[in-house]
């Protein structure tokens, strides 16, 4: 296809998409959603600007509003056009705004005495720009490195403590906006003076009303309606008291006066010489905290929207989208922003699943930025402070009241501690302390789980090896010689010591003989730390003192490497043994146990000889006369998986293994069988295909009793047939009994020892 044809096709596709977006069925909901978002959020952005540019910076609040509105314009447009979610809305946020307000106050206090008010303002604007550019760069780096899932690893109480602290900062800032002065603990009594009480009490009433209503009802028009009603009530009171607009402005009741025309006053190259960069550098801790909370906020909002909209959202793409938006906003002096959950979900609920939602939101911000200064100057400060109080109280109620019913008591205490620490020692100190304590809390809680998933013994667990009757009786009698621990999770200092104590307690149990073999199965272990390695070294010392041998199974390569220098050493090879899996490990232990003769075992073997299958001596007939003798070489398939039932096979000498091949081609060992064992009984009695293949491990002698020959025995020698069926029933019953013992031991839990004592 030619280049011209490709371009024509691309333009055609673009035109169709544009026509689809501009269709009234999509255009009108998108326009409505953008209008609702702007109506709700512009007053909030004004309140954030008033929070940042308060105190010594209050004379520059109009320019601060312009910076926030510019940020809303740019961030909303960029994210709307680049997000992975078509209806995504992104705007400057209150949590970073609270941190920046703290930093702005510190910058104003740290300026040299010779600095002018303009110098202070330009330095704060430069700090906002630098913060946004750093935030954008950080977002882009995380997105490019595919680290969007980092939110999964942030301790939840740490996030809660920070958000509670953010709420407190917003509440503190709200009182400063309404009263016109900084409010500390020492100034709290002065707030009850009638002159100040009249300034903050209406805002508190509005905040409480908003909080109570919105916690019970959720509708996008509630907030703008109450804000408009509160503003109207304010002007009714001005009219009733005969107070003019000019008098209200002079008395500090209104946001104005603001300059006419455009509000946006970005940094220009000549202004850079007036910026005190060393003062900004002192706020590095606050900037780092802001980066941290912005990433958390962005990913939490995106994750919540993913659930609300019931569709997948690309976290890494959202990070990159917000990164580009903050870089562009930072060049204009705006504070950082990122994707919102509430507004994006509201647009989705209004069926405005279109990028035009964010585009219209940005356009409305631009219109207010260029032409809205006269209108904004009439905005009442009590309403502005009430909105800030509403935001702050929302955080505090969620994390001081609601969290009491959601979190455990230690986690809730951690939230409170972070809140107190952040407000006493600073954000960075509170965040650092919170992360350290959250890790310690996790370590303590995790150590209580226990690293031992199941505790077994030779009395209730055996390998997948069919053995003669006398060997099974010996293994059952000597079951206490074998102690099996199935481990789980990550073994660290909090759990490794408990493991040592459990092995030590078992080795010194007065009611049981000391185990000769202690098996550690690592199949479900994800790793271990240095303290765990030391604990296994201590267990090796215990094994030497108690004449035990440690057996390690399913060792991951990394764990084996960790144990190589301290535990799995060649110098004391007699103290440890390693096998590929638990089945082979238990088989090895059973072989060692069976090679220890004593008088009682000899007597048991003599008594069991009669019970073991002997073809020549069942009810006076020699069953070998009905069987086919098969002398097989190593590697011969006696039965193949899927074969039709062929009768019974009796192993006289040698060894065979039952293997099952999965759908993925993986071969699993099911059972190993030696002399005196029977094969094929399940297929014979159930008349089913072979569920596994039978392969000889070494040269073997096997007798085959076909189905036809079995019927011939039943007809000619019914007593012999009955004895044979009884023998097969005993074998199957013994297998079921062994399986029941194992199941009961697994259900009993890791600490149970009653089955061992039985």
Characterization of this structure:
There is one protein chain. The protein is of the alpha/beta class and 758 residues long. It has three domains: 26-395, no CATH class; 455-605, Transcription Regulator spoIIAA, CATH 3.30.750; 616-747, Jelly Rolls (Sandwich). The chain is 60% helix and 11% strand. Helix 4 runs antiparallel to helix 11 (284-309) and helix 26 packs across helix 27. The relative contact order is 0.10.
Give short descriptive properties of this protein.
disordered C terminus, five-stranded mixed beta sheet, Transcription Regulator spoIIAA, Jelly Rolls, alpha/beta
Helicity level, as a percent range? 55-70%
Distance between the termini: 82 Å
**Reading side by side through the largest sheet, how are the strands ordered?**
3-5-6-7-8
Q: Name the shape in a single word.
A: elongated
How many domain regions? 3
Structural class: alpha/beta
Count of individual beta strands: 16
How many DSSP helices?
Answer: 28
Question: Could you provide a short overview of the structure?
Answer:
With 758 residues, this protein is an alpha/beta fold. 60% of the residues lie in helices and 11% in strands. The protein is built from 28 helices and 16 strands.
Secondary structure: elements and pairs:
Elements: H1 3-21, H2 24-52, H3 61-82, E1 90-92, H4 94-110, H5 117-144, H6 156-179, H7 194-216, H8 222-241, H9 245-250, H10 277-281, H11 284-309, H12 315-331, E2 337-339, H13 342-349, H14 356-371, H15 373-376, H16 381-406, H17 409-425, H18 427-449, E3 452-457, E4 465-466, H19 469-477, E5 482-491, H20 493-507, E6 517-528, H21 530-546, E7 549-553, H22 557-564, E8 576-579, H23 582-594, H24 599-611, E9 628-632, E10 637-639, E11 648-653, E12 656-661, E13 667-673, E14 678-679, H25 681-686, E15 693-696, E16 700-705, H26 707-716, H27 718-748, H28 754-757
Parallel strand pairs: 4-13, 5-6, 6-7, 7-8
Antiparallel strand pairs: 1-2, 3-5, 9-16, 10-15, 11-14, 11-16, 12-13, 12-15
Helix pairs in contact: 2-3, 2-4, 2-14, 2-16, 3-12, 3-14, 4-5, 4-6, 4-11, 5-11, 5-12, 6-16, 6-17, 6-18, 7-8, 7-16, 11-13, 16-17, 17-18, 19-24, 20-21, 26-27
